[in-house]
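Look over this record as teaching material.
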Amino acid sequence: MMMRHTPRSFVGSTTFHVPAMTDRSRAAALTAAIAGITGIAAVEADPATGCVAVTTELPVDRADVAAAIDAVAATFES
């Protein structure tokens, strides 16, 4: 969920919290999904903290990153 004053697009680095990411295979799946978004320069997922650090080189819509996270996280629950 995004706070209403959070800009939709970002350039640079930001962190997303993904509590369902609890092991390396889940971190790898999230990294691959997010890295496929145009404009993403780097993704670093840490299953110990549940945090995914995303760095962009072009403006990226947070909703695109959130959608990638949601799509992969849904597979965690299966």
Remarks:
- The two ends are 22 Å apart (CA to CA).
- Residues 62-76 form the longest helix (15 residues).
- Residues 52 and 58 are 18 Å apart (CA to CA).
